[in-house]
Amino acid sequence: xxxxxxxxxxxxxxxxxxxxxxxxxxxxxxxxxxxxxxxxxxxxxxxxxxxxxxxxxxxxxxxxxxxxxxxxxxxxxxxxxxxxxxxxxxxxxxxxxxxxxxxxxxxxxxxxxxxxxxxxxxxxxxxxxxxxxxxxxx
Length: 138
Hints:
Helices cover 71% and strands 9% of the residues. It has 138 residues and is mainly α. The longest helix has 26 residues, at 111-136. It is globular and about 55 Å long.
C-alpha cells in the first residue's frame, strides 16, 4: 500500500514503539517479560513500516536479516550464562556491576539485562521472519 498519510504517520508511531520497547527492556530486566514484550514492540514497528510501504522495500532496506537477529539473540543468551559457569555458581545466577555516575547515581548492569537483550533480539527476528513469510505468501 502506498498511502502518503500512513507513510508519514508510521515515522512517528514507529519512533514511539521503539522508545516504549527500550523502556520495557530497561524496566523489565528486574521484572519478568521485559525482553519479550520489548521485542514484540520493536518487531511491530517493522510490521507497521511494511503496511505503509511495499514488503519488497522493507525487506530490501533491512540491515540485518531475521536469522541474524535470532542468532545474535541466542549468542547474548549464551553469554549471559558465562559468569555463573565461570564462578562455579548455580546455572544462570545473576551477577551485577554497579557504576556510580555523578548525576545519575548508582547504575546496575547485570546478566539478567544481557539475557533480556538476547530475548529482545530473538523475538524481533522471529516476529519479522513470521510476519514477512506470511506477507510474502499472499
